[in-house]
């Protein structure tokens, strides 16, 4: 896996991923996301991928899955994440809460490389979920 990051100006960078995608990164948030926001987005994408795949393999009729992520950072430099909270809102038809609970747990404890890497680095990650019946 490879990525290159090119400095544009001031605190603005462009990342080019090995899969051919481009992301704008900007410490001032004027031209792109802040680097630490991208870490949270990566975590959210990784764990959401797992949860949706597990739910689909479990034959759950999922129509939407949203991961709301918020985090606390240390007050001093380096301002690392100290706690991250991931809350899933899973919407579908007759979704079983026990299956969602299992999917979230499997992602957190076995599958999501981003979660596991951050936790090994000392970040506390709390997962929660709710199930909403689709109309």
Give a quick set of tags describing it.
40% strand, 135 residues, alpha+beta, GMP Synthetase, Chain A, domain 3, globular, 3 helices, three-stranded mixed β-sheet, single chain, N-terminal domain of TfIIb
Descriptive notes:
- The longest helix has 23 residues, at 35-57.
- The mean pLDDT is 97.
- The protein has helices at 35-57, 97-111, 113-120; strands at residues 3-9, 12-17, 22-26, 61-73, 81-93, 124-133.
- The strands form 2 sheets. A 3-stranded antiparallel beta sheet has the order 1-2-3, with no helix packed on it.
- It is globular, with a radius of gyration of 17 Å.
- It folds into 2 domains: 1-33, N-terminal domain of TfIIb (Single Sheet); 35-133, GMP Synthetase, Chain A, domain 3.
- With 135 residues, the protein is of the alpha+beta class.
TL;DR of this structure?
By secondary structure, the chain is of the alpha+beta class. It has three helices and six strands. This is OsmC-like protein.
Amino- and carboxy-terminal Cα gap:
41 Å
Fraction of residues in β-strands: 35-45%
Order of helices and strands: EEEHEEHHE
Provide the gyration radius in Å: 17 Å
CATH topology of the largest domain, anyone?
GMP Synthetase, Chain A, domain 3
What is the spatial order of strands in the main beta sheet?
A: 1-2-3
The CATH architecture assignment of the largest domain turns out to be 2-Layer Sandwich
Rounded mean pLDDT score: 97
Largest sheet: 3 strands, antiparallel
What is the CATH top level name of the largest domain? Alpha Beta
Shape: globular
Class based on secondary structure composition and strand pairing: alpha+beta
InterPro entries: KH_dom-like_a/b, OsmC/Ohr_fam, OsmC/Ohrsf
Pfam family, one: OsmC
Protein name: OsmC-like protein
